[in-house]
Amino acid sequence: MERQGNLMQFRPDIKVLDATIRDGGLVNDFYFDDEFVKNLYHANVSAGIDYMEFGYKASKDIFDTTKFGKWKFCDEADLRSIVGDNDTDLKIAVMADVGRCDFKKDFLPKSESVIDMIRVATYINTMPAAIEMIEHFHELGYETTCNIMAVSTAQESDIYMALELLGESNVNVIYLVDSYGSLYPEQVRELSFKYQKIASKYGKKIGIHAHNNQQLAFANTIEACSYGVSYLDGTMSGMGRGAGNCTLEMLMGFLKNPKYKILPVLKFVQNDIEKLKAAGVVWGYDIPYLCTGILNLHPRSAIAAMHDGDKDYSNFYIGLWDKDV
Length: 325
Known about the structure:
Elements: E1 15-18, H1 20-28, H2 34-47, E2 51-56, H3 76-83, E3 91-97, E4 117-122, H4 127-140, E5 143-148, H5 156-167, E6 173-178, H6 185-202, E7 205-210, H7 217-226, E8 231-234, H8 248-254, H9 263-278, H10 287-294, H11 300-308, H12 313-324
Parallel strand pairs: 1-2, 1-8, 2-3, 3-4, 4-5, 5-6, 6-7, 7-8
Helix pairs in contact: 2-9, 5-6, 6-7, 10-11, 10-12
């Protein structure tokens, strides 16, 4: 597969999705105030961003509503309090985790909702349940994606079968997700080829959602983009679980489509993200995340080490290695 375009060109097929509230919500349990979310919404509109992911549509029977902010649940009234009828070109997205949402009860038909896209998150072994959700959301009239998580730990044959199943479904976009921040650009390139083969066969689009454990989220995103992946996730100042994500401001600086404007993004980081940091909200690259990324492990142990202020990096790494082997 050849590279698509070059550094002096823009690709009209590119779509940018801001996941700040959803992935960033994993840092602060989704306790964003309305001013922050409204400012982000207007920044995304001004910047020409294509999609804004507001959070999860999680089940209130599974998750305690007193322990999470409202963007863990994304009630229709809360969404409309921010966007009204969303009379803009920006599309609204939410995420639905397999096994963690009441997808037959909590989602309105598209004609009654301000939501445009539902992103179904799944592991390889729950793909049949994910496809059931995708078909249900398709029937309700939504755009859909399938975000295959932790693909770095999956067997190649399982990835192929999952992609074939998704190709035969009504999903619009299939996402390559580096959940553990363990992939290198060469691996992302090879996976992009596999995903694009299915995309070409079934008329799907491919997206990428990268984590920054090894400070490669941006590099991996633009590597995938250069080989035809067209839906690109980013977050303001990289805000996201653990080491965070591909920074939206870097993505805006890279893309050459004149519809994308970096200045509203920089202003939002300056005026709103810096306030979160000053208030003590922490995310971003650190040694414990590097260690889990190197060993292709879930970052939960690194998150715990960061929370505890553990600076004994060598023993942390040795402990991970002992667990890994």
